Input
Amino acid sequence: MRISCFLFLLVAIQSSLTGFAQNSVVTDSASVSSPDKNLKLRFYQKKDAADKRVMYYQVSYKNKTIIAESVLDVQLDNHLSESAMALKIDKHEKWCENLVVRNIRTSSRDTTWKPPYGERTLIRDNYNTLTVELQKEDNPMYHLHVQIRAYNEGVALRYFFPENEKGTYYRIVSENTEFTLPSNTKAWFTGWGQAPYHLLPLSNWPDESERPLTLQLENGLYACLAEARLVDYSRTKFKLSKTKPNTILTSMHDPADLISPFSTPWRVIMVAEKVGDLLINNDIILNLNEPSKIKDESWIKPGKIMRIMTQTTKDAKANIDFAAKHNLQYVLFDWKWYGPAFTFTSDVTKVVAPLDMPGIIQYGKERGVGVWLYVNLQGLYSQSDSLFAVYKKWGVKGVKFGFVQVGSHRWTTWVQYAIKKAAENNIMVNIHDDWRPTGEQRTWPNLMTAEGIRGNEEMPDATHNTVLPFTRYIAGAADYTVSYLDKRIKNTHAHQLALAAIYYSPLQTLYWYDKPEMYKEAPELEFWDKIPVTWDETRVLQGAPGEHVVIARRSGNDWFVGAITNTSARTIKLPMNFLQKGKKYTARIYSDDATVQTDTQVRVSEITASSSSKLEIKLLPSGGQAIWLKVN
Output
């Protein structure tokens, strides 16, 4: 029986920077808009041919369709309605089909918070919310809330299951959230975290696509589908609907077993007029996560790091000397320092390589260089209750998690547990292989970076490198493992230099595959020596995925700019209007030049620049340019 609508007393509280404004009304249709009114999400229910209520939503931007009518649905394998059990209906019924709206709440929030590091100094968390409270019509014990937030940067929604009076567990076997897009939308598809990218229509995908998923709409707008706050759930990728054109579906890795109260991860739909704004606006991912749970963050120190290629005490000290000379804050002992990596029998609290670990750590401490250790999944899993405490006693600064398992509910929760255990012992974390972040860095800022990227371990070409800022980096920091002198690199040396400014990572790996003795004459390394890894301001100045990108980042009064092109030569006209007006800057420019008589053929030149200047940047095929600007 359809429940008639009740009119509730509306309560309004003037919003402040730290407060909420709230009101409440019951209906089966409601909308919420972003603070700037550009984005609008409408929630509603309709009955299908079988007279079942189905939840839908739509999203528009300045009255242009971003998401057309799309289903909201989760599927459980338990808690059937009494009528369904009596009729012996398949236990995988759609749990949401007989929900009725009981209440609708709205609120707003506008606050700012300061991260311990990041791509900007302050982050604004400004949104309007819509919470639709639903109840199973034939079994009132069961409730579901659809929680929606509308930011200027995008909208986000998730399913929340309030505490059940009988404490019943829920097994979510499928989340069938739809994203129906305008015709002729194209997606930057990638099949897994370390795969190449391809621009594809919404048809005939070879596999499910990773997230975030950047979309090009025919109306000139850009969108991005992302996941936020994946902490106790199964990872979701994206697949194409088999029955509905231009429609993307969520696809869970495996079922998630949960006990109420709980919520699913946020499904995020970012929207931008310029593709570079998707990267600039990626704070929405952090904002959808909980605030930091680390009370004292003073031990969390961003920095640059290089890997020790040959694990002996002599080579370790040589790397530390190189790191100190080139303003690197850390060195990494890669796998096998504790023995075979793919067995549970190796004790990751004992050193088997010819290393004087206490002496090396002390040697580094005296020179301002900290030590990180690689530990493979087997060691992490079997010794995570004790190994971080041991490393803290040794004086180790961080641990790189290797070959972690990803996707399943089990391994998702385990990774969160391991990050938490590391934090309890003042250990920073870098997660490698196929794992990608969903904003966990806000809650656990000891998680510095993660791989989930096709970086210099696999030597991609320049075109791939121009795609990454508009795709993978929307999810947050990535460890690209930038190389410089390795012969397998497909790009110019100035291109490689520029990556340190273009790619954000508060733990920035440089000189991957390189050894200190390889470096004799390379004055352009000054750019890497000087560049920081955490920023006061970030701007995407130009670019398009697959073509080129120019990014400028500010630390204090200094700016660092990186420009790269794809495999085609390109000339870029770059206005310098991002510089402070009335100030003169010395611009140190690091550019490819075949006439330079060094192995790297990078020219270092210097000019004076101001906000009224315009640079002409000539890029070779697969080339780049790096610029360091300091106030005169």
